[in-house]
């Protein structure tokens, strides 16, 4: 029987996200969600927005949200683009900036898997740049001259799933050496100790900073992502968005996002708690014999010299603890573990102790 779709679609493999079960008793440390709920002000704002006005279409320019981001970083709201999670923002970035350029996108060989998925989906050639032996991005490898002129560059900072960071000066160097192409820095995890490249934008209009409210603002369920860049690049993203006639964010998500950005003390308290717990968890895992990469994200990336990563992940799953394992070259011995509460770390480590004997 005809399958009704072509070879291109047949070649796509569905994205396998970390297991999303919310079953009771499950310790979910596999998708880097925030262990603390969103700010109480967010819940209040959603309550207020959830009224008769829901009969109206949302503001398709997300003006209040872009203004709140503008205030946060002291930038013009015209430098801000909002979408349903940073995954959707990234889709617009790929469509607007990298598609049909006839040149490859440069990216690390180990980074967020969606970049390659989007390249496949939008027919963008890929040029992979290996990480160093200690899993760091090597800035010089992106500075050029390039074998083939690239359409652009993308990486996460901190990188995922390694948690390793580049310094701002290194990012500035990459952007300066590639001034005629977009350099995208995905800052999904930037609020857990790294510095945002937003401050470089004035000097480097080719930088595109992508952020999410899913992690440090604890709004994964609302789907809010941002691109922050020069007005010209943002205009390109808006052209792509508008040609799909899309409403990027629903009314409740916009209200929630504004309220989250306007509660800096809750944000600070919870992210500091997560950073403290990252240190504690790192020590507890090291005491169990794990090698833990230095992380500036809300997860750690760790391997045990005597235990297979995949087997550990399966054994943990059997004990109702979810962590992330990637069946990929170089990192298949690692576990990526989301930083939760102190209780979460204790439970994880006591189960690990039992499993590893
Ligand atoms: N970028 C990176 C590096 C991520 O790890 C994630 C989360 N999986 C995302 C973007 C997407 O996050 P969201 O769509 O929830 O904003």
TrEMBL record:
The modification N6-(pyridoxal phosphate)lysine is found at residue 215. One of its GO terms (biological process) is L-histidine biosynthetic process. One of its GO terms (molecular function) is histidinol-phosphate transaminase activity. Signal peptide: none annotated. Keywords: Amino-acid biosynthesis, Aminotransferase, Histidine biosynthesis, Pyridoxal phosphate, Transferase. Its cofactor is pyridoxal 5'-phosphate. The keyword Signal does not apply. Residues 26-352 form the Aminotransferase class I/classII large domain. Pfam families: Aminotran_1_2. It catalyses: L-histidinol phosphate + 2-oxoglutarate = 3-(imidazol-4-yl)-2-oxopropyl phosphate + L-glutamate. Its EC number is 2.6.1.9. Pathway: Amino-acid biosynthesis; L-histidine biosynthesis; L-histidine from 5-phospho-alpha-D-ribose 1-diphosphate: step 7/9. InterPro entries: Aminotrans_II_pyridoxalP_BS, Aminotransferase_I/II_large, HisP_aminotrans, PyrdxlP-dep_Trfase, PyrdxlP-dep_Trfase_major, PyrdxlP-dep_Trfase_small. It comes from the Bacteria. It is an enzyme of class 2 (transferase). PROSITE patterns: AA_TRANSFER_CLASS_2 (PS00599). Gene3D superfamilies: Aspartate Aminotransferase, domain 1 (3.90.1150.10), Type I PLP-dependent aspartate aminotransferase-like (Major domain) (3.40.640.10). Belongs to the class-II pyridoxal-phosphate-dependent aminotransferase family. Histidinol-phosphate aminotransferase subfamily. HAMAP family: HisC_aminotrans_2 (MF_01023). Homodimer. This is Histidinol-phosphate aminotransferase. It comes from Allopusillimonas soli.
